[in-house]
Amino acid sequence: MHIKEIKEQIKKDFGESSDLTFCPAEAGGRQALYVTFDALTDKELLENNVMRPLSLLKGELTKENIHEKVFTTSPVKITADLTEAEDLVAEGATALFIEGDDHFYIFSVKKWERRSVSEPPTSSVLKGPREGFTEDIQINTSLLRRRLKTKSLVISEREIGKYSKTKVCVCYLSDVAAKKTVDLVNERLSHIEIDGVVDSSYLTKFIEDAPSSLFPQVGSLEKPDVVTAKLLEGRVAILVDGSPIALTVPHILIESFQDSQDYFKRNTRVTVTRFLRLFAAVIALFLPAVFVAVQEFQYQILPLKFLITIINSTNGTPLSPTLEMVLVLLIFDILNEASVRMPRYVGMALSVVGAIVLGETAVSAGLLSSPAVLVTALSSIGLYLVPDDVGTYSILRLLFVATAALMGLLGIILAVVILCGHLVTLQSFGSNYTSPYAPLLVSDLKDGFVKLELYDMENRPESIDNQNPVRIRKDDFMLEALGEKEESDENGRQ
User: Fold this and answer.
1) Closest Cα partner for 93 from 80, 107, 75, 104?
2) Of 72-76, 123-127, 406-410, where does the model show the most confidence?
3) What tens digit of pLDDT does each residue of 227-286 get?
4) What is the DSSP code string of 171-192?
5) Cα separation of 373 and 329, whole Å?
6) 155-172: per-residue pLDDT in tens?
7) 3-state secondary structure 295-364
């Protein structure tokens, strides 16, 4: 085909796109045509390192002399398939067609705007690394490579999406992660057929063991230091181009109560903080339901003075305790959704108006009782101590309120039994969701709600399948420094 025919065919295939650029030039003394997208190309690199050297080249163009003259970060690709050349141009490459030649020469001179590495807004820290993933997958893989300087770090790439052709990288340590976990991740990703992958969350429902469950079985993280720690435990990470959120599997329930800063603080403080998160989750889930159950059925279990206070506060409200609690919970959820979607400063003002003005006015007007507003506020605050599961707990507390309205405290107990039964049956890529407590794994309790020192965690978690269980080896010097050598010698003598 001639250059004119090639140009017309490419124009037709791309639907006369206005940002598609055709640049006529010379290469090896023959007429040539460069095809590229302006917004995806480093024009200076293309002109200085590709177009100028080839325009000065005399004689027949071959793969060897092109490699000698052209200076790009990636090797020159040669293809005779027009469709393949067009796909590469759509990804940001530049295609060269030479009159009288049946091949396309593909040069990687890509360039586009990238967000700089900064602290992620959803994972701000007081102590520890402040770097966060960006939307560029090359930057994200480099952040992992910088922390894991080993040939064991494997990053395998694939494309998912009929139209988006999104790059997806599966990352793991070859001598730590279990082979069956890696194979299972690759198998589930290979079966995904979708038009486009805009964010990593698109993949979540395709790879979870129980997509219909309220509880997430895939971790989502924005900090490379946390993902590195997960890889060192034997997990597998999934990075998606265009998304600053990395997915990690397996994911278990205890991870929701852990935080990256826990490993930079004293273990006593961390233990107290984790129990606070657990207590907050219990308050968030059960306080509204218990409040309704006590008012509707079991009011006699309250102390007399407390009961009189509640009766005086709720006297005159037009709604039943159940309808009142459901209404207040829905109002708080609506205010939360509105504040998230409004501009930042308007959202702050909306929170103040909604929480203070609206709540105070409703109580003063007698539409709502002050105890119901107080209980809902405490429950909503408790939700955000476990930020990854806010959506899950918001739905569950409404379900608990419904069961409390029907059966009282007995309904709450039955709902808890059903919830526990569901949790113990959940699996995440071969790991039990409720481990290390169900089943009980004593060695993993060192990093449960009670956290021990880092040097006490000699082995990787048993709840996560891995090839190499040992991660800390203590020599005589370390044992003596920790006071364990004398104990072991005494035990030996005994």
Assistant:
1) 107
2) 406-410
3) 999 999 999 999 999 899 999 999 999 998 988 888 888 888 999 999 999 999 999 999
4) EEETTTB-HHHHHHHHHHHHT-
5) 9
6) 999 999 988 889 999 999
7) HHCCHHHCCHHHHHHHHHHHCCCCCCHHHHHHHHHHHHHHHHHHHHHCCHHHHHHHHHHHHHHHHHHHHH
Q: Is residue 35 a contact partner of residue 105, using CB atoms and an 8 Å limit?
A: no
Q: Which helix (H) or strand (E) holds 88?
A: helix 82-90
What DSSP line would sit under 95-107, residue for residue?
EEEETT---EEEE
pLDDT score of 489 more than 60: no
pTM of the model: 0.83
CA–CA separation, 249 vs 476, rounded Å? 36
Q: How far apart are the first and last CA of the chain?
A: 90
**Residue appearing with tokens 């007007």:** 365
By the 8 A CB rule, do 251 and 217 touch?
yes
Tokens of 427: 């699996």
Q: What is the DSSP letter of 79?
A: E
pLDDT digits (tens, 9 = 90+) for 11-58: 888 887 877 888 888 877 778 888 888 777 777 777 777 778 777 777
Measure the CA dihedral 358/360/366/372, to 10°.
90
In eight-state DSSP terms, residue 11 is H
Closest by CA to 402, choosing from 312, 323, 487, 486, is 323
In the chain, how long is the greatest CA-to-CA distance?
102
